Amino acid sequence: MAKVDVGDAAPDFELEGTDGLTFKLSEHRGHNVVLAFYPGDATTVCTKQFCSYRDKADELDGLDAKVFGISPQSVDSHERWVEEQELNVPLLADEDLSVSRLYGVTGWLGPLARLTELKDAPGGRYVQRATFVVDREGVVRFRQVSRTGVRFTTVGEIERALAELA
User: Fold this and answer.
1) Over residues 40-65, mean pLDDT
2) pTM (2 decimals)?
3) Which of 34, 46, 67, 75 is catalytic?
4) Average pLDDT for residues 93-99, to the nearest whole number?
């Protein structure tokens, strides 16, 4: 599996998202972008992560970047979760894990994973919790992957990563 690392050109992709969004990374050149990969809508840690982004909306709005969540659930699932939790980050549907594989953030769902809240694992794989900061030129400047999925990138960590770009 390929792995995108700091200093690499961010692979381009296109995904459907909430609010009728069709997101294409290359269309965001000239802007900083934060890609927040996560295992699943409405799971405990994912809810904590995206609710923390919601609760720090003023700080997120003040960032010199736009944040997007990416997981394998459908747009319909994303829309329900956004409504239930009043989330403010656009969510993108990577149902076949093609983008997650492209960025090197999938793992095999092993026997212990049956104890998790993940209901589906396309092809036996799941999305690892990961954050990438892509600069205005399309280069990855920050990469953080949580192999266990219990730790997520905070708004403060995103702010610090973006401050290093200035």
Assistant:
1) 93
2) 0.91
3) 46
4) 95
Whether 51 sits among the annotated catalytic residues: the reply is: no
Q: Which residues contact 36 (CB under 8 A, 6 or more apart)?
A: 49, 67, 68, 69, 70, 89, 130, 131, 152, 153
Those residues with Cβ within 8 angstroms of residue 27's Cβ, 6 or more apart along the chain or in another chain:
none
The pLDDT, as a whole number, for residue 150 is 85
Torsion of CA 78, 79, 80, 81, to 10 degrees: 50
- List own/partner pairs for 156-160 with CB under 8 A and 24 or more apart: 157/131, 158/34, 158/63, 158/65, 158/67, 158/131, 158/133, 159/59, 159/63
Name 4's bridge partners: none
Residue 112 pLDDT > 60: no
Q: How far is the C-alpha of 129 from the C-alpha of 147, rounded, in Å?
A: 7
Q: Which amino acid is at 46?
A: C
> In degrees rounded to 5, what are phi and psi of residue 134?
-110, 125
Structure-token pair, residue 75: 């747009």
pLDDT of 115 higher than 60: no
Higher-pLDDT residue of 35, 109: 35
